[in-house]
Every structure is written in structure tokens, then in C-alpha cells.
Design a protein that fits this description.
The chain is mainly α. The protein has 2 domains: 255 residues, no CATH class; 116 residues, no CATH class. The protein contains 21 helices and 4 strands. It has a two-stranded antiparallel sheet with strand order 1-2. Strand 3 and strand 4 form a beta hairpin. Helix 7 runs antiparallel to helix 8 and helix 18 runs antiparallel to helix 19. The longest helix has 33 residues.
């Protein structure tokens, strides 16, 4: 067996044969395209410079890209077993670094997330991504571990939540949100889909309550009125889907419809019931009926429905409290502008408006390389970092933008394919972590540029200017390539 391990473990020439060269090619295409896009975004008609001028953003990015490639090759030479063996120590060190950063880093635009190391500035939160992915993969790779009890759920959630709390301490909320994407890894590894469903409902509640907060109906904000109705509908739907009890579902539905008919009839004669009194009475009675139903149907499933309804109502009332007392003023304004509740074209909404103008002006084929006007005249702030995609949209048009997105899609699908061909849980979970990070960054960054998401400072992988993000994704990708290169050896044990 020992001889078989030595024969199959990639090393030297066999490593070159085992590395997924297609993924590596996609990586190279993206970092080169990113550096070229940064040159286009920072190009100045009055004072032009070479793309490789090391004093320019593009020249510096090419340096970062070269160092990233060297770093990646170094990561490929490290034995795959070391990543698994030292996953927890690496995670622990990064947590300590994140905490220290929150206290010693200088204040940069309201956040303390950058460490200055001589001529370089690095953001530890970007490197904590691969450390968290390794720790989560190590946990799931532990013999006998499964998401089958609350203790294991708590441990897995703790690994994800701890860096989020540390990064929030640095006042870098946008980067902290990236780690929430790892919930899809938990889903892949056995977490109930009900958790994702509850999360989606929370987002819908949040948007509805804020979107229709200014209008009242029956004495309560219209948004809360709509959410009350949604909760009732979901309660009936869950009873039908989970409990499979026709009688219980029918009676609760008839109770809701009857209460609505009574309230509507009284309103017809000028008697308007206070909305809070009405809904709490109806939902309270229905919960009592559901408790009674637990005696005759599946207790666990009925209890799940009751818990969901109660949690939904509690969340509904907490939305305004959290929005008004937890979020910073600029964060609240960004959310309200994104939802179309407020219009701030010269303030928070300026970046997004200019970005959409730039992308729209590109049309189908674009204005050509260095031919953009909105970007060259610097109408779009931060266009070489978070808003780099608007340069692509203006100069390369719909066709070029689609091509970039297709390359990203190909890389993501390739990573998922790599994940599914692994022979160990550790390797599979780590690969899915990489895919989740990429999907979140891509979706939110493009959403920011198009005005579909609040502006939260999420860079476009391999494109946005800066070494921390590029190095962070290099760590993620090349560790995956090394782990994947060893899959045949581990599959033969």
C-alpha cells in the first residue's frame, strides 16, 4: 500500500500531468483581461502611458498578476496533505490576524481592514476566505461528521460566523457578507432546504416592509400588511406540503378566508378593525388550532409550521428596529436608493447612475478599446476597482460583457465539476467553497454596477484593481488545483 501511495501521489513530472490545465488557462485569461481592463479604465487622454508602466494602475496590476502566478505555482508544490493537516491552525491564525487588524489598522474611509506592510497594503479578510474554506472542509472531512444534529450544525455555523463577526468588527460589512455564501456548501452536504427557504422569506419580508412602509392600511404600514398575508399563505402551503393533512390545511385556510370575509364585511358598513388586533387575533387562533392539530397529525411537522409562523412575525417587527438602529446612515441610504424608495442622483446613487449610463452607451458592440467617453472622462468613480465592469460594458458592449460573463460561468462550472469528481469529502467541500465565493462576488458586483444590489464594495474577481483580492482568489484556486491533482492517489487508498 505504501508503494502504491508513492506511485500515485503527483510529484515532479506527474504533477504537470495531473493539474487541471483548463482551469489554469481560464485563470490566466481572466487576470490578463482584468489588467487590460484596468488600463482602459484608468487611461487618460491628456497624459497617456504604457500599459506596462509600473507607475500606472495597470502596470501595478501586472506586477500583482505576476506575483500571483508565482505564488500559485508555489502552492502547487505543497503536499495536499499539509492543507488538510494544518487547516485548523491556518484558520486560527487568520482569526487572530482579523482581530488584530480591527485594532491596529488605520481608518480608511470608515473601515479598519487594511494592514500596511511597507509599500504594500493587504486586506486580511481576503485571505481569511481560503482559511475558512479549509477549516469547513476539514470539519466535514472528519470521520463520522454529518449535519444530523444541532451540535454539528452549531460547529459548522460557528466556523462561518466567526470570521464574519471579526470582519464586522473592522467595519467592513460588504466583505463579511461574502462568507454567508458558504450556506450553500452546507446545503450541498445535507442541510435541510428549509433553511434556504427561510432565508429567502426573510429577504422578501425585508424588501416588502421597506418598500411599502410609507402607505398605511387598517392602521398598519402596507408592507407589514402584505407580509401578514404572505405569512398566512405560507402557513397553509407548509401544512399542505409537509403535513399532508387535508383536514388541517382546509380548516386553517377556511379560517383565514372567513376572517378576511368578516373584516371585509365590517369595513363595508364602516367598521374598520385595527390591523394589528385583527391579524394577531386570526394568527393566534390559527396557532392554537395548529397546537390542537399536533395531537392528531405529525407533531414535528406541525411544530415546524408553528415555529416558522412565529419566527416570521418576530422578524417582521425586528426589520424596522434593525434598519433604524443597527445599519449606518450610508448603508440605509444605499438600500433605499436600490429599492427605488429614495432618489439621490448626486449622492449615494451617483456611482450607480453613471455606471448604468456608461454600460448603456456601449450598445451591442461597444465603443472600442479606449473609446469609452463616460469612463475616460471619469464620470464613474472607482471605475478601476468595484465598478470595473462598466468599462467593459462601454468599450466592449453587450457582446464583450457577455463574453466575460461566459468565461466566469465556464470557470464556475469547471470548479463544480472538479468538486463532484473528488474522492474525499474534504476536497469536495473545499471546491464548493471556492465556487460559492466566486458566484457571490460575481453576482453582487454585477448587481451593484447595474443597480440591482446596494453598493457594498465587493470587487469583481481577477478584474478589480488590487493585490489582496487577486491573491486571495489565487490562494483559493491553486490550493484547489493541488488538491484535485492528488484525487487519483486518494481514490486508490
Amino acid at each position: 500500500m505504501q508503494m502504491q501511495q508513492q506511485d500515485n501521489t503527483p510529484g515532479g513530472g506527474s504533477l504537470l500531468k495531473s493539474v487541471d490545465w483548463f482551469t489554469l488557462l481560464l485563470y490566466l485569461i481572466l487576470i490578463v483581461a482584468g489588467a487590460v481592463s484596468i488600463y482602459a479604465a484608468s487611461y487618460n487622454f491628456d497624459k497617456s502611458s504604457s500599459m506596462f508602466d509600473f507607475d500606472s494602475f495597470s502596470g501595478k496590476q501586472f506586477i500583482w498578476a505576476g506575483l500571483s502566478f508565482i505564488l500559485g505555482l508555489s502552492l502547487l508544490l505543497i503536499d495536499r496533505r499539509l492543507y488538510e493537516a494544518y487547516a485548523y491552525p491556518i484558520y486560527g491564525v487568520m482569526i487572530v490576524v482579523l482581530i488584530v487588524t480591527a485594532f491596529i489598522a488605520p481608518d480608511v474611509k470608515g473601515s479598519r481592514s487594511w494592514l500596511h506592510l511597507g509599500p504594500m497594503s493587504l486586506q486580511p479578510a481576503e485571505f481569511a476566505k481560503f482559511a475558512t474554506a479549509l477549516a469547513l472542509a476539514k470539519l466535514f472531512g472528519t470521520y463520522g461528521f454529518a449535519l444530523n444534529n444541532w451540535k454539528n450544525y452549531a460547529i459548522a455555523a460557528g466556523i462561518i460566523v466567526l470570521p464574519i463577526l471579526c470582519i464586522i468588527l473592522e467595519k467592513e460589512t460588504g466583505t463579511a457578507l461574502v462568507y454567508t455564501s458558504l450556506i450553500f456548501v452546507l446545503y450541498r452536504e445535507g442541510m435541510s432546504g428549509f433553511v434556504l427557504f427561510a432565508g429567502l422569506c426573510a429577504v422578501v419580508y425585508f424588501v416588502l416592509i421597506l418598500k411599502f412602509a410609507s402607505v398605511t392600511l387598517m392602521g398598519i404600514p402596507l408592507g407589514m400588511f402584505i407580509v401578514f398575508i404572505v405569512i398566512m399563505a405560507l402557513t397553509v402551503g407548509m401544512l399542505a406540503f409537509y403535513c399532508r393533512s387535508f383536514v388541517l390545511t382546509r380548516n386553517v385556510l377556511l379560517g383565514y378566508l372567513g376572517a378576511g370575509a368578516v373584516a371585509g364585511g365590517l369595513a363595508w358598513f364602516g367598521i374598520v378593525i385595527n390591523g394589528y388586533v385583527f391579524f394577531f387575533t386570526v394568527i393566534g387562533v390559527s396557532l392554537l388550532y395548529l397546537l390542537y392539530g399536533m395531537l392528531h397529525d405529525d407533531m414535528r411537522k406541525v411544530l415546524l409550521t408553528i415555529g416558522f409562523a412565529v419566527a416570521s412575525i418576530a422578524f417582521m417587527f425586528l426589520v424596522n428596529v434593525a434598519f433604524n438602529n443597527v445599519l449606518q446612515p450610508h448603508q440605509k441610504t444605499r438600500i433605499l436608493v436600490t429599492l427605488g424608495i429614495e432618489d439621490d442622483p448626486r449622492g449615494v446613487g451617483y456611482n450607480v447612475n453613471q455606471s448604468k449610463i456608461a454600460i448603456g452607451s456601449g450598445g451591442i458592440m461597444g465603443k472600442g478599446f479606449l473609446g469609452g467617453t463616460q469612463t475616460k472622462l471619469k464620470y464613474v468613480p472607482e471605475q478601476h476597482t468595484d465598478f470595473i465592469f462598466c468599462t467593459i460594458g462601454e468599450e466592449e458592449g453587450f457582446v464583450g460583457s457577455t463574453a466575460v460573463l461566459l468565461v466566469f460561468l465556464t470557470l464556475i462550472l469547471r470548479i463544480i465539476a472538479i468538486a463532484e469528481r473528488q474522492h474525499t469529502t474534504f476536497a469536495r467541500v473545499y471546491a464548493y467553497c471556492v465556487a460559492c465565493y466566486l458566484i457571490f462576488h460575481l453576482a453582487v458586483n454585477i448587481g451593484m454596477v447595474l443597480g440591482l444590489c446596494p453598493v457594498i464594495g465587493i470587487p469583481l474577481p481577477f478584474f478589480s484593481y488590487g493585490g489582496s483580492s487577486l491573491w486571495g482568489f489565487t490562494f483559493l484556486l491553486f490550493i484547489l488545483l493541488r488538491i484535485d491533482a492528488d484525487r487519483k492517489a486518494y481514490g486508490s487508498w
